Amino acid sequence: MYFKEFDIRWSDIDANRHLANSAYINFMSHTRMSYLTEKGLGQKQLAEHRLGPVVFYEHIYYFKEVFPGKPVRVSLELAGISEDGMFFEFHHNFYDASGRNFAHCEMLGAWIDMTSRQLTGLPEEFLSLLQEIPKTEKFRILTKADTRRYGKEPKDLHM
Known about the structure:
Layout: E1 2-6, H1 21-38, H2 43-48, E2 51-62, E3 72-82, E4 87-95, E5 101-113, E6 118-119, H3 124-131, E7 135-142
Parallel strand pairs: 3-7
Antiparallel strand pairs: 1-3, 2-5, 3-4, 4-5, 5-6
């Protein structure tokens, strides 16, 4: 399993003086990009291939408060990927300095072609990098249907 360690900064806490929701999001995205960059898929390579990651949702489950003063560790596991690499699901767990799991997140996303602004699969070299990410016990192959499993549809305002 891949881990990234973070110190909780003053800007990471909220009015309740515990780790803010926005910090969880930032720690997760930093963990994902750190892994990818270490494997050779950093900002430079994404720009060269006109690729960008798109987040469809991040479902965070909070188990326990965490406060500044000790580092936290964030894990990264691959829960699913489509055959062409277009869709991906990552799971993150958050651990305090004693190894207690204080939060879990399920994140679903895709890759977008930055020129056409359309979702796209990955070049083989990048797909193989994603497939190397440590996998969850319930890893699965994703399809487009997985992106709509919660049945959410946009509802426009009629003015």
